[in-house]
Amino acid sequence: MGDQCGSPRPTNTAAEEPECAGDRRHSHDHSHDHGNGHHHDHGVSADSDPRWLSIALALIVAFMAAEVVVGLLAQSLALITDAAHMLTDAASIVLALIAIRLSKRPARGQYTYGYKRAEILSAQANGITLLLLAAWFVYEGVNRLIHPPDVEGPLVFVTALIGIVVNIIAAWCISRANRTSLNVEGAFQHILNDMYAFIGTAIAGAVVWLAGYPRADAIAALVVAALMVKAGWALVRESGRIFLEAAPAHLDPDAIGARIVTLPQVSEVHDLHVWVITSGEPSLSAHILVDDRADCHAVRLEIERVLLAEFGLEHTTLQVDHVSELDSVAADLHCAEPHGRVHRS
């Protein structure tokens, strides 16, 4: 904007930071160590340990392939449904591993955030795939309720028990990796859902085996499909919020703006935006108006301290101006239609 932050200038030593025009500072400590014990991981980062993800992936893929074969031999839709669910888990882990490699690429050129949102794209694709597969399994499950095939109960029961063990091991491996990633956390939750689904499939296999009730397999498949809908919708919803630049669910922009204007010498906050670059990396920008005699730098530093300590926001861009320096002409042109609510002290 070019407005001068012309507060009265005290006598400064050479080491003091000079006051500036229209104090607009971008605050982000890339070491993520702010000296107050605050630490924050950003999505799928290069420091994520890919070894644990790779071990979980190998377990899932090996068992998934065996499960498809057994499911076809046993004519068990429940096993095939479980295998399809595990396929999306494997896809999440593969995409998380790719995102780890992409996160090592520095931001440059037109990609000013680098490739950090690659994981959000993949998470959304994973969620949509889950919903489409669930729709097909619901159709097939209902069909098998009406026309139940002969299901090999013992094969279903034993395979489901092995699946429970495999999922417990895979979940433990993923818990050792960086779960702030939407993909990694999604895969972790899917594997937990798989474990519950395998418990249901084991029960269904036992019912088919001991009671001779083949429809139990279709019922178990419908339960798994419901879990897939729940997990798929959660991924689509969360990735959609990020693409629509919505504020993180745990941060209320109005509460943040109201808190900032309670600080000394802050007169107004507008154009306040809170969004997520990628999972685990919230950001904030705002235009702050301060009293005429306020030190823009000191006010900005205090706001940054509050945002970090109270809201966990370390990636902030703040423009700080004096109220009186927005003359009548500039006021008509500047922020004539501010985005969102205007907060005044």
TrEMBL record:
Domain Cation efflux protein cytoplasmic: 254-322
Keywords carried by this UniProt record: Ion transport, Membrane, Transmembrane, Transmembrane helix, Transport
GO molecular function terms noted in the UniProt entry: zinc ion transmembrane transporter activity
Positions of transmembrane segments: 52-77, 83-100, 120-139, 154-174, 195-212, 218-236
Annotated region (Disordered), positions in chain: 1-44
Annotated family: Belongs to the cation diffusion facilitator (CDF) transporter (TC 2.A.4) family. SLC30A subfamily.
Name of this protein: Cobalt-zinc-cadmium efflux system protein
Organism: Nocardia bhagyanarayanae
